[in-house]
Design a protein that fits this description.
Strand content: 25-35%
Strand order of the largest sheet: 1-2-3-5-6-8
Structural class: alpha+beta
Helix content: 25-40%
CATH architecture: 3-Layer(aba) Sandwich
Amino acid sequence: MVEHRGELMAELLLQDLGPTFVARAERTLGYDYFAGFPNSKGGINVTAVEVKATDRPVPALFPIDRRSYDSLAHSNIPVLVVVADVKQNRLYYGWPQPHGASGRPGSHKVAMPLVEINDHTKAQLRGRLVG
């Protein structure tokens, strides 16, 4: 139930950002959605979207499985991670980077920095998606 609600919240966010398309990805690909946004040169910037959902408060450094993070960070297309706090109805986002998360050596988790989505950060996110 939590995961499904988180995916719906993320899909509504993506639609609100003005995409050319939003497509649900097959589970075997490791993403939840692909979204395309028109760029200034007449093309489409495609971004993979991974959704994480929780009913607990979301920390600024979100814990994520190291193997999952590494897979997302080393993709050949940009990956947007959307974290949904379904209890508080809040969304957060982050961009996995090859050296952008912290974690203790030997730990199975890393801490990915997140930004809470509000009107200002939503505009910044849209700007990055359209390039």
